UniProtKB/TrEMBL annotation:
The lineage of its organism: Bacteria, Pseudomonadati, Pseudomonadota, Gammaproteobacteria, Cellvibrionales. Its EC number is 3.6.1.23. Signal peptide: none annotated. Keywords: Hydrolase. CDD domains: NTP-PPase_dUTPase (cd11527). One of its GO terms (molecular function) is dUTP diphosphatase activity. It comes from Zhongshania arctica. The keyword Glycoprotein does not apply. It is an enzyme of class 3 (hydrolase). This is dUTP diphosphatase.
Length: 197
């Protein structure tokens, strides 16, 4: 996933690590979006939409991983650092809203990203690591697909056949083989087959 994130960020800007992007800000904004999908408004009837919550968790992971990259640190070392940060981590057992707030608070306070707090969030959102991986790769592929089809210049069409591209992605992921060596390519081809040219 780190390699895919580096490639995506490099596609958007070749010197992305030196741009000084506020990745932490993108994380806490996504936390707010997640809370909207989960529901926090006691003054009106709301039903948690766990599928959308999980998509927001995946978006948070895109920005969170980006925040962890440092110039001169290779991907293998960064992956090892992530694993070390989780060694001995006993989840706080928080609910979705509380885990989201803890991560957002950390991001705002430190202008950084906490893998253990993110782990608490994926646990609260009922995501396994395999689910996170599958959804992350799918969203990463969709982001590449968007860039390849005019997202940056505004010519990309987000609604196809009456559905947003994210809905098509969910359909494609439901039948995709996560064990395939060509998993990412298979998802990309699935998107291409549906995209109105």
């Amino acid at each position: 996933m780190l390699d895919l994130q580096n490639r995506m960020n490099s596609k958007v800007h070749s010197d992305w690590m030196n741009q000084g992007n506020a990745w932490y800000r993108a994380v806490w904004i996504e936390c707010g979006e997640l809370m909207d999908h989960y529901g926090y408004k006691w003054w009106k009837k709301q039903q948690p939409d766990l599928a959308q919550v999980q998509l927001e968790v995946v978006d948070i992971w895109h920005f969170g991983m980006s925040a962890l990259f440092k110039k001169g640190v290779n991907i293998e070392t960064l992956a090892d650092d992530i694993l070390v940060s989780l060694e001995g981590h006993i989840g706080a057992g928080l609910g979705v809203l509380e885990a989201t707030e803890a991560l957002a608070e950390y991001c705002l306070r430190t202008k950084g990203f906490s893998v253990p707090l993110f782990w608490d969030l994926i646990t609260a959102a009922e995501l396994s690591f395999d689910d996170l991986y599958k959804q992350y790769v799918g969203k990463n592929v969709l982001n590449f697909f968007r860039q390849d089809h005019g997202y940056k210049d505004g010519s990309y069409i987000k609604i196809w056949l009456g559905q947003e591209d994210n809905v098509h992605l969910v359909d494609i992921l439901a039948s995709a083989d996560i064990q395939s060596l060509n998993f990412a390519d298979d998802v990309y081809q699935g998107l291409a087959a549906r995209y109105p040219v």
